[in-house]
C-alpha cells in the first residue's frame, strides 16, 4: 500500500536519476513497486544496494550524463 495515497502497489520498472557533482547518472530498467494510483515508486533493499553499487562503479568515470542499464550490471 502506498504511504502517500494508500493506492495499490504493482511490480514495475522505472528510470532512476541521480545528480552527483553536476553530473547526471540515469539508471534505466530498475525493478520497483509502483503505486497504481499516484505513481510513487518504491525500491526494496536489494535493489537499493545494487543502485548504490552501480553509482559507486561509475562515480569515478563520470561524464556530464551517464546512462546505465540496471539489467546489464554484474553483481
Structure explained in plain terms:
With 75 residues, this protein is α+β, with helices and mostly antiparallel strands. It has one domain (9-72): Ubiquitin-like (UB roll). It contains one helix and four strands; from the N terminus they run βββαβ. Strands 1, 2, 3 and 4 form a four-stranded mixed beta sheet that branches. The radius of gyration is 14 Å and the shape is elongated. The N and C termini lie far apart (29 Å). The mean pLDDT is 91.
Secondary structure layout:
Layout lengths: L8 E12 L2 E13 L5 E2 L2 H15 L5 E5 L6
Parallel strand pairs: 2-4
Antiparallel strand pairs: 1-2, 2-3
Please name the defining characteristics of this protein.
75 residues, alpha+beta, Ubiquitin-like (UB roll), 4-stranded mixed sheet, 20% helix, elongated
Short description:
The chain has 75 residues and is α+β, with helices and mostly antiparallel strands. The chain contains 1 helix and 4 strands; from the N terminus they run E-E-E-H-E.
User: What is the CATH architecture descriptor?
Assistant: Roll
Strand content: 35-45%
Number of strands: 4
Rg, Å, rounded: 14 Å
What is the 3D form? Answer: elongated
Q: On the 0-100 scale, what is the average pLDDT?
A: 91
Number of helices: 1
